[in-house]
Write a structure and sequence with these properties.
This protein is α/β, with parallel strands linked by helices. It has seven helices and 15 strands. 20% of the residues lie in helices and 18% in strands.
């Protein structure tokens, strides 16, 4: 793989045509880097919602997923290029949760890297040491869009692959300031609908070191889901925080409400449920549900609530999502949390329901406090959900 990568900026963008246009603008202003003596050629041609990538052009562009991982690994085959794993002194992430914390939460003597500071925001690019290949912030701070549409890896060896040929969900890599270390691994794949953005998601621009060949096509189109029909509020709650938010949403919308419950409920003890939740995530369990929606086909929009457990969805949510066909429906997530916002829970949902549209999420700190009512109102408006 003969490419060179340059760290230029860490900015938050949706993917689509906004990111592509930004890169062409950078290419047109070739004086932003004196590394290249010749002028750069714009990489992308945009026609409506279609984008064509000229692989022989030497302008600024997004890396492919393969290029990103190759550069991040810096010749290593371990989970991180950093020996052991990153600490909060090495990168900007949810430092309370270093690599391996999930199995050592109550007894941390075996952890190679101990919990550290959680900064709860971005920091200036280049605040930490560079990788062995001279690249900054490959882990943490902001996740980074890649060119690739998310899909299964093809079988056999590939040279300079460019991702799946169809779809609207793009891969992003590296983890952000609110991610656990496990979700910053060199191999970890996250994805989001290309029309969406996030508070901890940005871009890293690259240029060819050697010309490629051919053209790759992409599209800025987005999946369309159900709208204007019946709405169901479905939620799983352990402490009651998510239940309280679900009831507030129902009060403002008048929508039907459904609680996701288990045949074998989790423990009422906080320390025990932490272990149970991690156990189920580790084995990707699908706990048996005791409640079921008899008329799911009647609903166009599902407002889906859950607590952030170990930076992802509780496994009962996976059971729920796999029980029904959500193709063509819109799923709007809301999540209660203790500081990590959504973690990687939305990526987990997107992977489970590839045929659904994911709306704008709402993260609620614990019970939401005095601003819950107004926060819910604004969020419903942003998603086009009518209020009473």
């Amino acid at each position: 793989m003969k490419k060179i990568l340059l760290v230029l900026m860490a900015i938050v963008l949706t993917f689509g045509l906004v990111a592509c246009s930004s890169e062409n603008s950078s290419s047109d202003q070739s004086n932003i880097s004196n590394i290249y003596s010749s002028s750069s050629t714009p990489v992308y041609t945009i026609d409506g919602q279609s984008v064509s990538w000229n692989r022989s052009a030497n302008g600024y562009r997004l890396p492919t997923e393969a290029e990103w991982e190759y550069a991040c690994r810096a010749g290593t085959t371990t989970p991180f290029y950093i020996p052991n794993s990153p600490s909060a002194d090495d990168t900007n992430f949810y430092g309370h949760y270093p690599y391996g914390i999930e199995d050592n939460y109550f007894s941390q003597g075996n952890l190679e890297v101990k919990p550290g500071v959680y900064r709860q925001t971005t920091v200036e690019v280049g605040s930490f040491s560079a990788s062995p290949w001279g690249l900054y912030d490959m882990y943490g701070n902001v996740s980074e869009w890649t060119w690739d549409i998310y899909g299964a890896y093809p079988e056999g060896e590939q040279t300079d692959p460019t991702g799946a040929t169809e779809g609207t969900r793009r891969v992003y890599r590296g983890g952000g300031w609110n991610d656990f270390a496990k979700n910053m691994r060199s191999a970890y794949r996250a994805m989001m609908d290309q029309s969406k953005g996030s508070f901890n998601l940005g871009i890293r621009l690259v240029r060819n070191a050697a010309a490629g060949s051919g053209n790759v096509s992409g599209s800025g189109e987005q999946t369309t889901g159900g709208s204007g029909g019946k709405i169901l509020i479905a939620y799983f709650s352990w402490s009651g925080n998510t239940r309280g938010a679900a009831r507030e949403i129902q009060a403002q919308t008048g929508a039907d409400i459904f609680e996701i419950t288990l045949v074998h409920p989790y423990s009422d003890d906080y320390n025990t449920v932490l272990d149970e939740a991690q156990r189920d995530q580790n084995i990707q369990a699908r706990p048996e549900l005791s409640s079921h929606v008899e008329n799911m086909a009647d609903y166009d929009t599902i407002i889906l609530g859950y607590p952030n457990w170990w930076a992802s969805i509780p496994m009962p949510i996976a059971s729920f999502l796999e029980e029904y066909d959500f193709s063509g429906k819109t799923i709007i997530p809301f999540c209660s949390h203790g500081g990590g916002r959504f973690g990687q829970s939305i990526t987990a949902i997107e992977k489970l329901v590839p045929g659904a549209v994911i709306g704008e999420g709402l993260s609620i700190h614990y019970s939401g406090g005095s601003t819950l009512e107004s926060d819910v109102s604004e969020w419903l408006d942003n998603n086009g959900i009518a209020r009473n």
